[in-house]
């Protein structure tokens, strides 16, 4: 069974207010700033992201193509939050769409391998 991906759509404040009483409104802030630093003294960081004041998102991928952003996406956090993060990064042009797709594919592969170790197939 696959989880349904919620439809995410950027709407204006006016449109949000017209949704009526059957809808809950949620306001999230994503703050980011240019970061000239280097992780471990050698990996350029480019941006630091702070989501809702609670989560720091690494916007880089290490040479192994798993460390950094893909590894972050493979962590267990609410799936809706993951899709909201990917949507925001795309809409705000903070990361190229192809890099988002690569990171998500690497994260999915990592999760698949972890599940295979936990639940070996019976042959």
UniProtKB/TrEMBL annotation:
It comes from the Eukaryota. It holds the Pfam family Nudt16-like. It is found in: Nucleus. GO terms for molecular function: snoRNA binding. GO terms for cellular component: nucleus. The keyword Nucleus applies. Keywords: Nucleus, RNA-binding. Transmembrane segments: none annotated. This is Tudor-interacting repair regulator protein isoform X2. The gene is NUDT16L1.
């Amino acid at each position: 069974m696959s989880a349904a991906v919620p439809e995410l759509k950027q709407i204006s404040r006016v449109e949000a207010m017209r949704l009526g009483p059957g809808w809950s409104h949620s306001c999230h802030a994503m703050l980011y700033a240019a970061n000239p630093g280097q992780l471990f003294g050698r990996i350029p960081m480019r941006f630091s992201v702070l989501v809702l004041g609670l989560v720091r998102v690494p916007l880089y991928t290490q040479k192994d193509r798993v460390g950094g952003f893909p590894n972050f996406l493979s962590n267990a956090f609410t799936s809706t939050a993951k899709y909201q993060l990917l949507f925001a990064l795309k809409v705000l042009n903070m990361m190229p769409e192809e890099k988002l797709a690569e990171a998500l594919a690497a994260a999915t592969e990592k999760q698949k391998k972890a599940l295979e170790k936990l639940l070996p197939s019976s042959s």
